[in-house]
Amino acid sequence: MYKCHRRKRFLFLVFIMAIIIIFVLNLMPSPHRAQSQRTPPASCSVNFADAGRFPLVALLSAPGSGNTWTRHLIQQATGFYTGSAYNVIHLAETGYAGEIVDPSAGTTLTMKTHMAYFRITPDRIEKNVTAAIILIRNPFDMTISERNRRFTKSQTGLASWNKDLRNDTEWTEYAKFQAIKYVRIPVSWMQSGLPFLVVHYENIMSDRIREIRRIAKFLNVTEFVTEERLRCIQDEGEGNYHRKYVDKKKMYDAFTDDLKTTFIGYIKALSEYLPESQPLPWEHYFNPLLGSLPNISSIEPIYDKLLKLPKKLQ
Asked: What predicted TM-score, i.e. pTM, was given to this entire model?
């Protein structure tokens, strides 16, 4: 009898503890939970277009360049969902309903992709891409952002950064490969002969209204970008997946002088490929938190062997 009573009391305590744990977990901040609860004003609502309304235009970038946030701004400014080549379910559940829709159906504006042009063409969906918006972000911030996403499996998470990374071979090789992507992905499209518009992440940060107007003009949807919709990207401009940084200094500290030299070499190479009307925003490329830099003028451009040389060198 006593043992039975003690067992019942034990099960009751387990039940109470389970309820407490569930309650606490629901109070804890979760990126996906918080994002799903964000409800924009009715005037900033986003919808699908009729089938076949829009041509298939790539929103092309190296990973970590702010593609998802740019999609949010396009959606808020135009009122139409953007698409993707990746079908990420949690994005579809938190404001990006076009994520899981066939991007070739013409119901969404742009298709997110990180594929270089010579990898886009064979795909059954992406081969019909007619043009591209090429989103470029300085490779230091791009690499930091992508490492944070890669190690936390979250578009808003922050990975662990410590001084040991400076001596970590795996980090060094990873960072150098990101620098290659920084050039290879955009330039491969520029050399395809198909239309493109270059958009720099840093320019969006400094004047999102101007850059969104440029994007809307390229997409031929300027009639939808009203003053009311532009207020949406001011009032609801952050979206659910714009990462908030606390201490970025320790992230920049991971870049050794050797990595800085390599990155600057690729930056100088990319600058030679860009149209004169869409140059790199050099003034925003080197955050003071990076510390001392090598002599930029003495560093030679590093050209990707998979790409044609800039026209002036051909």
From this structure: 0.81
Smallest Cα–Cα separation from 235: which of 12, 102, 38, 62? 38
pLDDT at 209 over 70: yes
At residue 207, does pLDDT exceed 80? yes
Residues 6 or more apart whose CB falls under 8 angstroms from that of 273 comprise: 183, 186, 187, 190, 310
CA distances to 42, 141, 235, 259 from 163, rounded to whole Å, are 47, 18, 38, 15
CA 215, chain centre distance (Å): 16
> Taking the C-alpha atoms of 280, 248, 182 and 283 in order, what is their torsion angle to the nearest 10 degrees?
10
Distance CA 38, CA 36 (A): 6
Residue 301 — very low, low, confident or very high, per pLDDT cuts 50/70/90? Answer: very high
Q: CA–CA separation, 20 vs 28, rounded Å?
A: 13
At 176, the amino acid letter reads: K
Q: How far apart are CA 161 and CA 245, in angstroms?
A: 12
